[in-house]
Amino acid sequence: MVFKVVLTNVGGNGGRGGDVILECSPSVWDFRSLQHHLRAGKGGHGAPKNMIGTCGEDKVVLVPVGTVIHLIEGEIPSMVDNRSESDLDPWERPGSLVDDPSLSNQQTTIQNPSVPEEVKSTCKNDSSSSHTEITSKASTNLQHATQAEQEGEKQIQYNIAELTKQGQRVIIAYGGEGGLGNVCCPSVSKKPMVMKSKSYKNGPSDPKLASDDQSSLVAGEPGSESELILELKSIADVGLVGMPSAGKSTLLGAISRAKPAVGHYSFTTLRPNLGNMNFDDIQITVADIPGLIKGAHENRGLGHAFLRHIERTKVLAYVVDLASGLDGRKGIKPWKQLRDLIIELEHHQEGLSDRPSLVVANKIDEDGAEEVYEELERRVQGVPIYPVCAVLEEGVPELKVGLRMLVNGEKSERLSLDKIQVD
Ligand SMILES: Nc1nc2c(ncn2[C@@H]2O[C@H](COP(=O)(O)OP(=O)(O)OP(=O)(O)O)[C@@H](O)[C@H]2O)c(=O)[nH]1
Ligand SMILES: [Mg+2]
After folding, report:
1. What residue ranges do the domains of the chain occupy?
2. What is the CATH number of domain 236-419?
């Protein structure tokens, strides 16, 4: 999602405006808290509405692990500190499990913003991607934002930082200098003074400028301006999504060199496993995501935690168990598995299932599975279905080619409820 907001922190009566700081936190999964703070935030006393932070008080906003900060225009933000070096689960550290050169090429980042890396890449405002753009302009921001949206493209000047560790902080906007306050000059209007672009990072404002206009003494001055794109880095190219015991972990072992635990009981996998599919020219990261059950969006079976991982994959491979419900055995038919999975994804986050997808019809080796597969093909339209026996690695080469095409964008079929005939 792309959104743009005003982000200027104005000094208030007698005090300097607080800085706006982004802090990396594994408990946050998207930029929603950022939106919330921006909406709820107040400026220093006398500051225009819609500002973030209060006078003299820094505003710390939590962002997810894997947030990449690009600068489009303005002052280069600076890294503050790593408040806590506590070790994260490897899953929470993008790239830590994956030695993927293609990813590092896409996301060249630096940890020291004093030597920013200049880039000339263009970032498209693609509403399907998880981008957040923060436009911090003192006056004409919303107009700018609309313009930018119309233009559709922005030049990224620098890759500023990639926040991968808990507690890492970056100042993205410096607070403006404080005015002297209404107390000193009660006759002057309380109306805030909005000034042209200017940075107040390096000490007090120009006294001449201040004395030129009494109202700035009262209202304080705007903080620094910068225009940023925040991007949430994907954790995997492909997510294996399915009900418990569908064979996701077995499949990950078959398509990569990963060796995840496999069990004949549900919820064998409780934390996602990552593996790499290696081709001559490209490496694709696959995440084996813990099984989802009906009601996952209401947190049944740790649903929330599992569903969140899906947000950060580009392509979905729905793994269904063809043997489920066969021969009077308990279980859900594959087409119903697909329907339930989509419902859970969409309840968790609207549009979550709207990404390139395919279906893996697993356990084709089981008695009666062929017939179920044929029925599945009749009942599910619009996405390729790959019959696979993950245990014997049958059908795996074809599946790998299909996944590669989706990741490369050569195909982009999506599974939706209207393409599944359940009754
Ligand atoms: N017959 C048959 N059994 C399979 C196949 N793939 C997996 N299984 C079996 O299905 C069971 C579950 O496999 P897992 O890979 O652990 O399933 P999962 O989807 O990762 O399960 P959770 O982690 O609980 O969500 C195991 O007993 C596997 O041996 C297959 O292609 N054919
Ligand atoms: Mg598993």
Report:
1. 20-232, 236-419
2. 3.40.50.300
